[in-house]
Design goal:
alpha+beta, Pdz3 Domain, 2-enoyl-CoA Hydratase, Chain A, domain 1, seven-stranded mixed beta sheet, four-stranded antiparallel beta sheet, 30 strands
Length: 544
């Protein structure tokens, strides 16, 4: 298919399973591209949906002043009621939600605003029994804009890897951000949490203290952590929360092997800030004439789809991508030719071969470097999601040999636009993506298999995440398996199993008895952030 490289830019989303259901049911309006007038006598009538813009920006508590994340323009909020906000959510969902016909049209007067939004989704399960829509969120708009536009988050700079949230709990340090409070304190990958502010993290039901320590509400809060390192040493740290500058591209290096130079890069998030780091990595690999490339996506929850397209081009080059589709977006059956949010004609996302000005959504005249690789190794876990999976799927769609080392990915072929209304930003599934071969049904994740039989199975090796070594260490489990595969074209005879990896991590010196049916703690912010901020989100502006 011939396409234009000015096609619109997509940012990233989240989500799970299942084919798009046949849709029917309630009457819906168009997307409401009219100037709203003040709605009066707002009432709910089952099955009748007014245009969403009838209720847009009418708020129970309107914001005042100017928006620092929108060129200091005045907030659009006008005085309204809770019901105005809920009726907007109802019409918006009926118009654009991917599975709109599976939403129960319940009386909004019986819910708070947040509770009403939370039930505006399908309650169906997939064939495997999992929920069709596992991720349906709202976030404070100011907090969302702060992270997505500045790359700054608040916390300690630790990427946690959760085992369990109920006793006996398990929480492991996956990595730390450079120059963060955690990195400056010397906290190491693989360290496990034993205590927070003197409370037994593993078994205690004092979840308020644990949650307060894991998720500080503001900068400057100091909390005490007792951690057990991989070598068995137990160290206590006082860590102060601060703004964290995200480093989405880390540990770029070239490893000398018997098969030639191998490029390795740890790619943590498809946010626009990663563009320069990825270009630098590809230039370094090209200068050192790498024979193979390993992309470490094990903690990459997604991000800008346009960036995934750019990076796929940088790996595969002109010959493989010229006039080819990276991903085609499919909305619900009300919107087969036009985007329901922007009104733009639907066009496939190409393999972008230019740098992008992400502030203005403009393709620049600067060519991207490329390696012209025929295959690429990707390191994955269940935290590899959305735009990262689209990167894999897009390359497979043009017959680039993708070798997957690690565990099954999270399975999120779906996406959304973030939508602000009255100070809350809502995330609701609105589209799915398919590659140049028409494949996009990987809602159970991409599964590494030595001998793949199904489209969602990818040639490679099932290897557990190895917390005993630093990321980028050639002896670390996933990377060493990739290096072995390059040499032998097969999986290692002795691969690290979960029991092997967990054996050293599970030995704690805590002797208190585990509490049966204990209380669950909140998932730490960065896991939630990975879902909300990094997954396949559509931007509203077309690349010019």
């Amino acid at each position: 298919m011939l396409i234009h490289k000015s096609a619109r830019i997509y940012l990233l989303s989240v989500f799970t399973l299942s084919l798009l259901s046949a849709c029917g049911g309630g009457t819906s309006s168009d997307s409401g591209l009219i100037s709203p007038t003040t709605p009066t006598n707002v009432t709910w009538v089952a099955g009748t949906f007014a245009p969403e813009n009838t209720f847009k920006d009418f708020c129970s508590n309107p914001r005042t002043g100017s928006d620092p994340f929108n060129q200091n323009q005045a907030y659009p909020d006008k005085q309204g009621t809770d019901l105005h906000e809920k009726m907007w959510l109802r019409s918006y969902s009926d118009n654009s939600y991917l599975w709109y016909s599976e939403i129960e049209d319940n009386d909004p007067n019986n819910f708070s605003i947040s509770d009403y939004f939370n039930q505006l989704k399908t309650q169906e399960n997939t064939d495997s029994g999992a929920k069709k829509d596992n991720f349906h969120f709202l976030e404070n708009t100011a907090d969302y804009n702060k992270q997505t536009q500045s790359g700054i988050t608040s916390g300690y700079g630790i990427r946690w890897q959760f085992g369990t949230v109920k006793p006996p709990r398990k929480l492991t340090v996956a990595y730390t951000e450079p120059n963060s409070p955690a990195a400056l304190r010397g906290i190491q990958r693989g360290a496990q949490v034993l205590e927070i502010d003197g409370v037994d993290f593993i078994n205690s039901n004092d979840v308020d203290t644990i949650n307060a320590g894991l998720s500080p509400t503001q900068n400057g809060q100091i909390h005490a952590f007792k951690l057990k390192n991989i070598d068995g040493s137990i160290i206590s740290y006082n860590i102060e929360s601060a703004d964290i500058n995200t480093s989405p591209v880390q540990n770029t290096k070239v490893i000398a092997t018997n098969v030639g130079n191998v490029g390795y890069v740890q790619f943590n998030s498809h946010i626009p800030l990663a563009q320069e780091g990825l270009i630098s990595a590809i230039n370094q690999f090209s200068a050192q004439n790498v024979a193979e490339v390993v992309i470490d996506l094990r903690y990459n929850g997604g991000g800008a789809l346009a960036l995934a397209s750019q990076f796929a081009y940088m790996i595969s080059g002109d010959n493989a991508t010229n006039n080819r589709t990276f991903e085609t977006t499919v909305f619900n059956n009300k919107h087969t030719t036009n985007d329901p949010i922007t009104g733009n004609t639907l066009r496939p996302t190409p393999f972008y071969d230019k740098k992008i000005d992400y502030v203005n959504n403009v393709l620049t005249s600067t060519n991207l470097p490329s390696l012209n690789m025929q295959r690429v190794f990707v390191l994955t876990t269940g935290s590899t999601c959305s735009a990262s999976e689209a990167f894999m799927n897009g390359l497979r769609g043009i017959d680039i040999d993708v070798i997957q080392i690690g565990n099954t990915t999270c399975g999120k072929p779906y996406g959304f636009y973030p939508q602000d209304n009255c100070g809350s930003t809502y995330f609701t599934i609105q589209f799915k993506g398919i590659n140049a071969k028409g494949f996009g049904d990987y809602s159970d994740g991409f599964v590494p298999k030595e001998s793949p039989q199904f489209q969602s199975e990818v040639k490679g090796c099932d290897v557990a995440d190895d917390f005993t070594k630093a990321l980028g260490d050639p002896t670390e489990g996933l990377l060493s398996a990739a290096l072995e595969y390059m040499k032998s074209e097969s999986c290692p005879v002795i691969a690290l199993s979960r029991s092997t990896i967990d054996k050293g991590l599970n030995k704690t010196q805590n002797t208190s008895k585990s509490i049966d049916n204990g209380l669950a703690i909140k998932v730490p912010n960065q896991i939630y952030n990975s879902i909300v901020f990094e997954n396949k989100i559509l931007s509203r502006e077309a690349i010019k």
